[in-house]
Amino acid sequence: MRFYIVDAFTDKIFDGNPAGVVLIDNDKNFPQDDIMQKTAAELRYSETAFVYQNNTDEFTIRYFTPKGEVDLCGHATIAAFSVLVKEGIISLDTQCFNNTKAGRLNIIAGNEIMMQMAEPQLLKTLNDQTILQNLYSIMGADYSTQRSEYLPYIISTGLADIIMPIRNAEILNSLKPDMVALSSFSEHMKVVGVHALSLEQDDDFTAHVRNFAPLFGIDEESATGTANGALTYWLYLNNMLKNGDKCNFLQGEAMMRPSIITTQLSILNDKCNISVGGKAVILAQGEIFI
To answer: Which value, to the nearest 10 degrees, does the dihedral of the CA atoms of residues 225, 231, 233, 237 take?
Structure first.
């Protein structure tokens, strides 16, 4: 099997979010789950995408973190389809289909890879004061100093995350979560982790964001497609976006791996669709002898 190390949501090596990509040989099926899990743990990236080609424009991808399988991963999807374009398996500006455990998703493989997210779902509004104080305390912030008109929501566009507003970029950048407590809290709330955003105005970016998912072995992630898709829906629900709007989110600053994640909102027949995308660059490639 061929493997690649890809920096997603950037056009510069060593920026963005690195992912592993493994292309399954055409004459073989997916390896056993434990083999994919061990491979992901060996590669040591937050997610590794295992890609199987069903036909010319249709693929099935399974995603593994060092600790377990997840239904969908945005940056690993961007990485995977960038590899498919680079290797000539698909052509530029091709529409493809990606079968995942979160559903069958449309992909546009151009200079940027844009992926349709799963239908956005508002799973829960966090308005209980005890829960809110506990959440912000775990994250290293004082809830009493935040803008109370905007509440954290649990939203899924493939994976459930807590979208957590922070008053300004200074507080956002100073967050030092208690990772053990956050892992336990995430498990209790049935979410992957917390996606925090600064509400401070910025002419260049829609928001500055940070993402924490220690429950899945990721203390902090430098670019997160599914969570920024969920954030786009949070902005829409809070009347900050309208049909057709695009967003640019800056993530990874605190990790010295800046990433730019693009999203677009479209509404048709009262149905909300969110696409997430960006660029990617291959750092390395090789063979896995299994």
So the answer is: 180
98: left (phi over 0), alpha (psi -120 to 50) or beta: beta
Tokens of 57: 């424009």
pTM for the full model?
0.86
From the CA atom positions of the chain, what is the Rg in Å? 18
CA angle 46, 104, 286 (to 5 degrees): 40
- The C-alpha atoms of residue 16 and residue 278 are separated, in whole angstroms, by 10
Where does the pLDDT of residue 287 fall: very low under 50, low under 70, confident under 90, or very high at 90 and above?
A: very high
For the chain, list the domains and their CATH numbers.
Answer: 2-117+279-287 (3.10.310.10), 121-275 (3.10.310.10)
How does pLDDT run across 138-159, given as a tens digit for each residue? 999 999 888 778 999 999 998 9
Q: What is the phi-psi region of residue 228: left when phi exceeds 0, alpha when psi lies from -120 to 50, beta otherwise?
A: alpha
The larger pLDDT score, comparing residue 183 to residue 67, is at 183
